[in-house]
Amino acid sequence: MNDLDRQLIALLRENARMPVVALAKKLQVARATVQNRIARLEQDGVIVGYTLRLRPEEDAQQIRAIMSVAVESNREEAVMRMLRGHVAVVTLHSVNGHWDLVAELRLENLEAFEQLIGSVRAMSGVKATETSIVLATYKM
């Protein structure tokens, strides 16, 4: 991956629906160059999908939280598999330090939030959890 690829990825992160013509203009390259680069990045598995972001006011009714999870040493894969399968888990990170996993959660209400916390704590292999509700997001 070179500088042009990194610039292209940065533009796509900003707006994944930006037309190829607009991307080419911003990057000062031919439209075909952008199309070929995107195709190659997708084929190589660098770009694995596209997503959307909602205006904060559209997402305001959802509960957002960050959950840290400590896992028994030989159970991390199994716990990750279970968390990946839960609709409320938006992202899942393996991290170093006191916690083994960090999950970003999005839920409809406090009842669903409480149920999710209980189900994660009851998972085989989970030693401990700590969850914080996100009050505000300042940079996206």
Characterise this structure.
The structure is a single chain. Helix 2 packs across helix 3. The chain has helices at 3-14, 20-27, 31-43, 76-84, 110-121; strands spanning 63-71, 89-94, 101-107, 126-133. It has 140 residues and is of the alpha+beta class. The two termini are 24 Å apart. It has 2 domains: 3-43, Orthogonal Bundle (Arc Repressor Mutant, subunit A), CATH 1.10.10; 63-133, Lrp/AsnC effector binding domain/regulation of amino acid metabolism (RAM) domain (Alpha-Beta Plaits, 2-Layer Sandwich).
How does the overall form come out from the CA principal axes? Answer: elongated
Helix content: 25-40%
Low-confidence stretches: none
Mean pLDDT over the residues:
90
The helix-and-strand class reads alpha+beta
Number of helices: 5
Topology, number of strands? 4
CATH class of the largest domain, please? Alpha Beta
Q: How far is the N terminus from the C terminus? A: 24 Å
**What's the story with the biggest beta sheet?**
4 strands, antiparallel
Question: What is this structure's SSE topology?
Answer:
Elements: H1 3-14, H2 20-27, H3 31-43, E1 63-71, H4 76-84, E2 89-94, E3 101-107, H5 110-121, E4 126-133
Antiparallel strand pairs: 1-3, 1-4, 2-3
Helix pairs in contact: 2-3
